[in-house]
Amino acid sequence: MRIQFRLMLVFFGGDLSKVPTQALTVGVQTVMDAREVMILITGSHKALALHQAIECGISHMCTVSAMQMHRCAMFIADEDATLELKVKTVRYFKGLMGHHRTLVEF
Prior knowledge:
By secondary structure, this protein is mainly α. It has one domain. The chain has helices spanning 3-11, 28-32, 47-54, 87-105, and strands at residues 37-41, 73-77.
């Protein structure tokens, strides 16, 4: 059995019916060329990825960290996904959300 297939089975809990039959792969440069990028991160199992994406430096080991350089990137995360973030970071972004809501109302 190919290693990628075995990894997918592990990722999807061993349920072959949950493994996608098709996938879309987009390179980092293609994403960086986009006018706007929205990244949705949910669940505590993605908390470390969110931490590496926004609190650590840009790294080839965490390609989503390149979004720090994007001119219009938006990260949307639920509470569980923020578990690895520093308290200051969470407060900062929550404060921005309140400011954003005020601006949108006009």
